[in-house]
Amino acid sequence: MARAKTHQFRAETRKVLNILTHSLYTNREIFLRELLSNASDALEKARFLQNTGESARGADLPLEIRITVDKDAGVLMVADTGVGMSEQEMIDNLGTIARSGSEQFLRERRAERAGNPEQPGAQTGEKGDTQAPEQTGDTHDGTADGSEKTAGSDEIRESEGAPADASQIIGHFGVGFYSVFMVADKVEVTSMPARGDATAHVWTSDGTGSFSVKALDGDEAQGIRRGTVVRAYLKDDAKEFLEKYRLESIIRAHSNFLPFPIILEGDRVNTTPALWREPKFSITKEQYNEFYTFLTYDSRAPLDVIHLSVDAPVQFTALLFIPDTAQDYFQEQKGEWGPDLYVRRVLIERSNSELVPNYLAFLKGVVDTEDLPLNISRETLQENAVVRKISQTIVKQVLSHLERLAASDKDRYEAFWKLHGRWFKFAFNDYLNRERVAPLLRFASSATEGEAVTSLDDYLSRAKAGQKEIWYVTAPTREAARVNPHLERFRRKGLEVLYLLEAVDEFALESLGQYKEHAFKSVEQADAKALDEFPDSGESEPRAEPLSGDDKTAFDRLVEAMRAILGDQIKEIRVSDRLSGSPACLVSPDGVSSSMEKLMRVMQKSDGIPKKILELNPDHPLMRALLRIHKANADDPLLRDMVNSLYDNTLLLDGYLNDPYSLADRSLKLLNESAAWYADLRKL
User: Fold this and answer.
1) Distance from C-alpha of 228 to C-alpha of 222, rounded to nearest angstrom
2) What is the pLDDT of residue 29?
3) Which member of 297, 320, 347, 684 has the greatest number of CB atoms within 10 A?
4) In terms of Cα–Cα distance, which of 93, 76, 119 is closest to 213?
5) Rounded CA gap, 383 and 533, in Å?
6) Mind listing the pLDDT tens digit for each residue in 289-346?
7) Alpha carbon of 348 to those of 30, 33, 146: distances in Å?
8) Cα separation of the two ends of the chain
């Protein structure tokens, strides 16, 4: 029986190992991701050797990863049928931290292509993890994902039967394997190399000062086949990792899309393929729907699918979905939006909000790249330049998709807008793309019915000859917008007005400034003389004969009386040139729209009511009635109640409520008076 040879970790290596197992990783379950990633790398290398015609031991073995547990012994085993390691490779790769077998494998492949092959060395060993473009595992053997991308191609081709690309090997740092010591106080690695006639060896260490390597022969070597088996003797506080449900949840969370079967206690776990890496023309709608359900747990099929494969300026693939349900991405789900970020099929971060701007927060899906620099633990990004480039590309591709959808399927685009338009409007902050965003915006308007919306282009197609503005009014609902007194002139002139029903709408239009040389302008800022240039062509209210002579003088006295009654609640009272169907309205003295003024007061934490100008319509029946009351008795107490009630009404239409108790009291008093008068008239 062969004796084990004991080797000492170098002193500085012991210090690094202590850091790796106690400080580098923030989540202990990551150790399984690293072991599985290494196993995937090992299988990828074995496939590479087979597909390039090299002879390899166990050519009939399936390429797979098997996980088993022995609860009685407290042992977790991860086995693969990859390239395995020889004795020297174990010493080199598992005895030297930050020496990556995959890095060596890549160097040899590059040298072979250059016609200067290196001597076979640690080409099978891997205890790495991921570096910049590389991304999957660490430990003994290991390689990448098995996908092949053609330059300039819009598709990804799965390479299960095609020659593997050695440049896709993942591990580079050479530290991921040691994460197993977070949960294990002893680790055995048994490995049989795929090449040559070397025997199997077992590497053993407790992760402290030394490790041993022993050759297996005779009975010990019976039944050992090509590949590597990692046996982790778990610590007492890590026995949770012997439970099948716990292991399955880790695999599904981090390693579900590795390209080789992962079999846990006889059942395959990773049954869902990495759909984003498959050719778009080969994927059915049902497959997209199934993947979306797997990813989001949403029972409804997605409204739309965007499948991207990009080679420049960075290389990445993405499978994005537009959900068929509306969600609140900035309140209940604050910080929980954005696609999941993968590097070579291995999850790096869920809901990465840096991949898309906030106005595309509704997008669900995955982004997988080979160009992303990560820190040594693969838990955080080293820098965000690559992510920013990916985000910029995604934005352009999604905007192109929405442009095509809006042009080819109006009803479907309106369905998208109804669900996600309130978030998409925040694109007004995207100064690089605002020229593309503006045609995609939709608003309710005086020309639409029900929940229908209009584009800015459609609005302009209905604009009057000589119209220089795109008019809008802010309101909480369509009905509130419709009864706004400021719209009366626009209805009379047949001018369409956009209804801005959400707070972000006015910010969006104010930020855009104009669209196709038509300035956005609030109806409250309209110049009556400019509107008079348009002929009457729409709805008009019946108008009384203008006041003249003594009545005009009497109305001036009524205005003075109203000014005295309202006092400092208002800034000024004047006769309006904008009203026809309403008795009065409030106007901002500085030209700021009511909604913008409210938002500014909220930001200033002011809950008072601003002093505004009260404009009166002397031709309205209510104002004529007040005039008669004032002429009959200037001190009539009913006049005071009616003037205050009129002011309350204008405040309500302007979106304010001054004193609800006084309002209710006055309303009841006036109802009582009017009901009594009406009853008396009925007796006559």
Assistant:
1) 15
2) 92
3) 320
4) 93
5) 59
6) 999 999 999 999 999 999 999 998 889 999 999 999 988 776 655 667 899 999 888 8
7) 11, 11, 19
8) 126
pLDDT digits (tens, 9 = 90+) for 99-110: 444 555 555 555
- Please state the φ and ψ torsions of residue 299, each to the nearest 5 degrees: -75, -20
Nearest to 162 by CA among 81, 255, 268, 259: 259
Q: Are the beta carbons of 9 and 17 closer than 8 angstroms?
A: yes
Beta-strand pair 364-369/316-322: antiparallel
Which residues lie across from 473 on neighbouring strands? 499
Q: Where are the alpha helices (DSSP H) in 453-515?
A: 456-461, 478-482, 488-493, 503-512
pLDDT at residue 10 is higher than 60: no
- Enter the tokens of residue 340: 């999941």
Please say whether the beta carbons of 43 and 80 come within 8 A. yes
Position 22 scores a pLDDT of: 65
Secondary structure of 509-551 in HEC code, one letter for each residue: HHHHCEECCEEEEEHHHCCHHHHHCCCCCCCCCCCCCCCCHHH
Q: pLDDT category, 162, cuts 50, 70, 90?
A: very low
Burial 91-103 (b: 16+ CB within 10 A, else e): bbbbbbbbbbbbb
Please report, as a single letter, which amino acid is at residue 186: K
Q: Which residues contact 99 (CB under 8 A, 6 or more apart)?
A: 92, 93, 122, 127, 174
Name the 3-class secondary structure at 391: helix
- Cα 294 to Cα 286: distance, rounded to the nearest angstrom: 12
DSSP state of 381: B
Residue 643: Cβ within 10 Å count: 22
Whole-angstrom CA distances from 187 to 75, 203, 234 are 9, 8, 9
Instruction: State whether residue 601 is helix, strand or coil.
Output: helix
Residues 76 and 67: their CA atoms lie apart, in Å, by 7
249's enclosing H/E stretch is helix 244-250
Of residues 4 and 491, more confidence is placed in: 491
pLDDT in tens, 617-631: 898 889 988 999 998
Using alpha carbons, list the distances in angstroms from residue 421 to 18, 359, 418.
Answer: 52, 9, 6
Q: In the beta sheet, which residues pair with residue 549?
A: none
Burial class (CB in 10 A: 0-12, 13-18, 19+), 597: middle
Task: Count CA atoms closer than 13 A to 488's CA, side-chain side.
Answer: 19
Amino acid in position 79: A
pLDDT (0 to 100) of residue 476: 87
Q: Strands 346-349, 340-343: parallel, antiparallel or unpaired by DSSP?
A: antiparallel
What average pLDDT score do residues 370-384 get?
A: 61
Average pLDDT, the chain: 82
Query: Residue 488: what pLDDT?
Result: 87
Tell me if 357 sits within 8 A of 395, measured CB to CB. yes
Identify the three-state secondary structure at position 193.
coil
CA neighbor of 245 nearest in space, from 231, 230, 258, 264: 264
Sign of the Cα torsion 86, 87, 90, 93 reads negative
Place of tokens 């998709």: 401
